[in-house]
Amino acid sequence: xxxxxxxxxxxxxxxxxxxxxxxxxxxxxxxxxxxxxxxxxxxxxxxxxxxxxxxxxxxxxxxxxxxxxxxxxxxxxxxxxxxxxxxxxxxxxxxxxxxxx
Length: 101
Hints:
Layout: E1 18-19, E2 22-26, E3 35-41, H1 47-55, E4 63-69, E5 76-80, E6 83-87, H2 89-92, E7 95-99
Antiparallel strand pairs: 1-2, 2-7, 3-4, 3-7, 4-5, 5-6
């Protein structure tokens, strides 16, 4: 039986958090057309979802570019290794990136 009353604690990734030398932010916070290097996946991203994201190429060190977003808070399109993929904003929020200048 699952106990859904206890939610795991996790660190929210936002523009104020620092990872490494650069400023880290979540993938969904990127502006359209901007590129970033993936720093880490949130500890909240576990199991099948973590495996799927890593299978898609969302691993530390990869370069990703934000392409477009569907209206009304729908999926966000990203380009990664020559492929365009879409992620829900909640999934993109689990990926910490450093924007490339």
